[in-house]
Design goal:
The structure holds three protein chains of three kinds.
Chain A lengths: L1 H38 L8 H22 L15 H36 L12 H31 L2 H8 L8
Chain B lengths: L1 E6 L5 H18 L5 E6 H4 L6 H6 L5 E5 L22 H23 L1 E7 L4 E5 L13 E3 L3 H10 L2 E3 L6 H6 L5 E5 H6 L8 E3 L9 E6 H5 L3 H35 L13 E3 L3 H23 L3 H13 L5
Parallel strand pairs in B: 1-2, 1-3, 6-7, 6-8, 9-11
Antiparallel strand pairs in B: 3-10, 4-10, 5-8, 5-9
Helix pairs in contact in B: 1-9, 4-11, 5-10
Chain C lengths: L1 H13 L4 H16 L8 H9 L6 H14 L2 H13 L6 H13 L5 H18 L4 H13 L8 H10 L3 H29 L12 H7 L4 H15 L5 H18 L6 H34 L2 H10 L5 H18 L2 H18 L4 H16 L6 H9 L5 H24 L2 H9 L1
The chains are: A mainly alpha, B alpha/beta, C mainly alpha.
The complex binds sodium ion (2 copies).
Subcellular location (chain A): Cell inner membrane
Membrane topology (chain A): Multi-pass membrane protein
Protein name (chain A): TRAP transporter small permease protein
Chain lengths: 181, 323, 427
């Protein structure tokens, strides 16, 4: 059950990463088109820097859970590596729960940004006049997804720990030592 | 009372020469020690100029100052404070801002929960062009770096193309023909060396005046006694607003002298750009475009009765009526 | 406040809480204890502003550029060619790490992206050839920092934006110091490995014909450099847009001059890009919030008082500012450090008569140092992330000699400002 959940979470985040990657490629295409049009004096699409910013915001929120599942968020092991196995596991679960708490708090405080935008019908102060709820909605839901992923991962970690499944515990929330592709 | 102040761009004269001395030195003097302040700027805090009032409304600091034009994403009606091209002298700009003040007061209260303390100008946002540009009509087909929604709309109406690039990338972009013209304050353009890569200076305020609204969190303001409120407002008016407007008068002449080499330049060596002053025809064209396209467009964006209010206040002050 | 934050930072990081999360916790703590204001209410807005950035998009783009070169086999061939030319030196393959990093620096504007690219190709070789993991990984972390000194450079773009200095001038000013520093890295590596041969692994010599044949493998990178930098100087693209042009060019190179770029390789490249970028962005977002909290609590005032109140001569002030960046660079993430300090420091230095372009280059060297000094050093993290085993301590230790080289570079820039200013003056 926990393994199935962990597997599903990993697969879901792989798909998220792929979608973000494609969005990045589309941004590249957008910028390139703009450069070419301008170079040959055919006008300009306009707004490529604005759209780049929105894509960046999406990557910087939706990508966070992907990095978490890959155990890619940087942790310092100066103290941890000097400890015995049980203490290491204690540090891992502690770090995970602290992370989880902070991420929940952040997601909570990200909501007012979108809320104000919705209340005021805010639009970007640019020629595109993008309704800001779209990029901010994507960004905020990315933080929600990060909070959800972190919570599930904490529960997975606790379940593995309770059953004494050392290897599975490490693979879920241990320190990344075998980043497999 | 100690106030936490977030000032405007820390690299520009408004912050260095007016906001800094006012909040750190003059405020305690003018209020007999009633108020003191801790000052930083939004760029140093790493927050966007457009987010200053959002945070101000949340009470993250007491007083915030930013270019009103940056925040029109949250409050499109605020665009009416700084309409490009209608005010060509500092005195006209001041009249425009004063006429708009009651509108701005209401907008800041309703949208951001903030009380306006004062409105100070940046220098007029004039046009630097590479090559010959003799009139507004010559901008047709040119690529112009401008900021602000109304300016971009105006450029579009002229048949020019508004391009959005960072301030520091302007000289290189002018030099290599990525853009033909760029809009900024004359003083900024002088100190950033734009004159090295452009030939013509058009002194029409195509980008408006980038009015900076200095506002206080309304809860904090309402918590003061009436005496305190009056003291604070008059201190800002006397110690910050007035000197900033006074400097706008002399500053523009000096900056133009420095850029064109006509007259005395107090800031350093003078450059030799060609000065293009707005002709009657230019002013006519500009007003025509404004009243028939740009301003009606704004009235629609702002909604409500803002167009009527604008006509009765700012419109009267500058002699423009939205049809 | 600075010291309390620094000590708490060390403590929380030692508990192995992710670095980005630690920075958020400290930001919240500073807001609670050093500020009378509900700074937490600004948290969402600060994160949104930090993430919604068309400048920072250059980071994932440069990472993607590197990933494409890796998956398309281009990076590996470049590395192998440089190995043939440099492995006769004491230290062997470590020199190839530095030279590869230098070459990629010329196509990438990001130090972390450069370090990530080189680490991915080089790390497998270290284990195969039995190198000392410390010097080997330290050289990659340090070599990667050249990414922001040799143009293009995201950090120089940020500096130019904040100080209203011409970015192409800054770019050209960084080139000579960047190349000199690469040479100094190689010299120091050789010296270390002469003294301690076991650190360097085998020195291997290749025949001249083999070397000459390998030169063709360097063509793709030189082509890429020409396109990225050329697009800026020819006026086709802004420095940020050149990153996107670089990605397309890297793709074409991988397809036509490399091993090709199938859907599977592309998917891996994209996944890797998102993982590294998100890892960096969590640190950047946390650092932005900490910076926001510390600035609200008076960091700027403390710095201003320290510098202006010191009553030192212009030269004394310069040394004080350098010392300040050395210390802050240990603890503060580099982009936040630049945003928080440039508006305070640069006007003071310019007022004292220092050239803004020159000071920009000097600052970039200090920022490079911050990238490889613990506890907060993004390049250390990135290289450690690419290793399959071992502790981050190895990378930290290995980077120390290169930190010393950077200090010498700073001295050289002060003694000979022309190192930075000559090239922009003739372009
Ligand atoms: Na570079
Ligand atoms: Na550091």
């Amino acid at each position: 059950m926990t393994d199935a959940l962990h597997g599903a979470l990993r697969r879901a985040n792989r798909i998220v990463a792929l979608i973000l990657g494609v969005a990045l490629l589309l941004t590249v295409a957008f910028i390139l088109t703009d450069v070419i049009l301008r170079k040959f004096g055919w006008g300009s699409l306009g707004g490529s820097d604005e759209v780049s910013g929105y894509v960046m915001a999406a990557v910087a929120s939706w990508g966070l859970a992907c990095a978490l599942l890959d155990r890619a968020h940087v942790r310092i092991d100066v103290l941890r590596q000097k400890l015995a196995q049980p203490s290491q596991a204690a540090m891992d679960i502690f770090a995970m729960i602290v992370t989880n708490g902070v991420v929940l708090l952040i997601a909570w405080h990200c909501w007012p940004v979108l809320q104000k935008t919705l209340e005021r019908g805010s639009r970007a102060n640019t020629p595109l006049e993008t309704p800001l709820w779209i990029p901010q909605g994507i960004w905020f839901s990315g933080w929600l997804w990060f909070a959800l992923s972190a919570t599930l991962l904490s529960l997975i970690g606790i379940a593995h720990l309770a059953k004494g499944r050392r290897a599975e515990f490490d693979a879920a929330i241990g320190m990344g030592s075998e980043l497999q592709e | 009372e100690e106030l936490a102040i977030v000032g405007s761009w820390s690299n520009l004269p408004l912050y260095q020469d007016f906001e800094t001395p006012f909040w750190t030195e003059k405020l305690p003097e003018l209020t007999d020690g009633e108020f003191t302040a801790q000052l930083t700027s939004f760029d140093q805090m790493g927050i966007a100029g457009s987010d200053v009032y959002r945070m101000l409304g949340d009470g993250v600091f007491d007083v915030g100052a930013t270019v009103a034009d940056y925040t029109v994403g949250d409050a499109p009606e605020l665009e009416g404070l700084d309409v490009p091209l209608v005010a060509t002298t500092p005195a006209q700009a001041q009249a425009m801002v004063e006429a708009a003040r009651p509108m701005v007061d209401d907008i800041m209260r309703d949208r951001f929960g903030a009380e306006v303390l004062g409105i100070a100008p940046y220098p007029p946002q004039v046009v630097f062009c590479k090559g010959e540009v003799a009139s507004l009509a010559d901008l047709e087909g040119k690529k112009v770096r401008g900021s602000g929604r109304m300016t971009t709309k105006f450029l579009e109406a002229l048949g020019a193309e508004g391009i959005n690039i960072a301030f520091s990338e302007v000289p290189g972009s002018l030099e290599r023909g990525v853009i033909d013209c760029a809009v900024t304050g004359a003083g900024s353009g002088y100190s950033a060396g734009w004159w090295e890569v452009s030939d013509t200076l058009m002194t029409i305020p195509l980008g408006g005046w980038d009015a900076v609204v200095i506002a206080m969190n309304a809860d904090r303001f309402d918590g003061f006694s009436e005496d305190q409120q009056a003291t604070l407002k008059s201190a800002v008016a006397e110690g910050l607003e007035a000197p900033a407007w006074a400097a706008a008068e002399g500053g523009l002449d000096n900056d133009i002298a420095c850029l064109t080499g006509t007259g005395d330049c107090a800031s350093g060596e003078a450059a030799s750009m060609t000065l293009v002053e707005p002709s009657e025809a230019d002013v006519e064209t500009a007003r025509e475009i404004l009243t028939t396209e740009v301003l009606p467009d704004w009235a629609e964006r702002a909604g409500g009765d803002w167009a009527t209010r604008w006509n009765e206040t700012v419109g009267q002050a500058v002699g423009v009526t939205i049809q | 406040m600075i010291w309390t934050v620094a000590i708490s930072l060390l403590g929380l990081m030692a508990l192995s809480i992710p670095v980005g999360i630690v920075l958020f916790i400290l930001g919240i703590g500073v807001g609670e204890f050093y500020s009378a204001f509900p700074l937490l209410r600004g948290l969402g807005q600060v994160i949104w502003s930090a993430s919604n950035s068309s400048t920072l998009i250059a980071i994932p783009l440069f990472v993607l550029l590197g990933e494409i070169l890796v998956r398309g086999g281009v990076a590996e061939r470049t590395y192998a060619a440089l190995d043939k030319w440099l492995s006769w030196l004491p230290g062997g393959l470590v020199h190839a790490n530095i030279a590869t990093a230098t070459m990629f620096s010329a196509t990438s504007g990001s130090s972390v992206a450069t370090a990530a690219t080189v680490a991915t190709v080089a790390m497998p070789q270290a284990e195969k050839l039995n190198y000392d993991p410390r010097l080997f990984s330290g050289a990659i972390a340090a070599g990667g920092t050249l990414g922001i000194l040799i143009p293009p450079s995201i950090n120089l773009i940020v500096y130019g934006f904040l100080t209203e200095t011409s970015i192409p001038r800054l770019f050209s000013a960084g080139l000579i110091p960047g190349l000199l520093m690469a040479l100094a890295f190689i010299a120091v590596t050789a010296a270390i490995c002469l003294a301690r041969p076991h650190l360097g692994g085998p020195s291997r010599s290749f025949g001249w014909s083999e070397r000459a044949n390998s030169l063709v493998q360097l063509v793709p990178i030189i082509l890429l450099f020409a396109v990225v930098i050329g697009s800026i100087y020819a006026g086709w693209a802004t420095p940020t847009e050149s990153a996107a042009i670089g990605v397309v060019m890297a793709g074409l190179i991988a397809i036509f001059l490399g091993d090709g770029l199938g859907p599977r390789a592309m998917a891996q490249a994209l996944h890797g890009t998102i993982r590294i970028s998100a890892m960096i962005m969590l640190v950047v977002a946390g650092a932005s919030f900490l910076n926001f909290a510390m600035t609200s609590a008076g960091l700027g005032r403390q710095l201003t008082e320290m510098i202006e109140g010191s009553g030192l001569s212009p030269f004394g002030t310069l040394l004080l500012v350098i010392a300040l960046y050395l210390v802050l660079g240990f603890f503060i993430e580099t982009l936040s450090l630049m945003v928080a300090t440039i508006p305070i420091v640069v006007p003071i230095m310019a007022g004292l008569g220092y050239d803004k372009v020159w000071f920009g280059v000097l600052m970039i060297v200090l920022i490079e140092m911050a990238l490889i000094t613990p506890p907060v050093g993004l390049n250390l993290f990135v290289v450690q992330g690419a290793r399959k085993s071992g502790s981050i301590n190895d990378v930290i230790m290995g980077a120390i000699p290169y930190v010393l080289v950077m200090i010498c570079m700073i001295a050289a820039l002060i003694a000979l400002p022309g190192l930075a200013l000559w090239l922009p003056s003739i372009l």
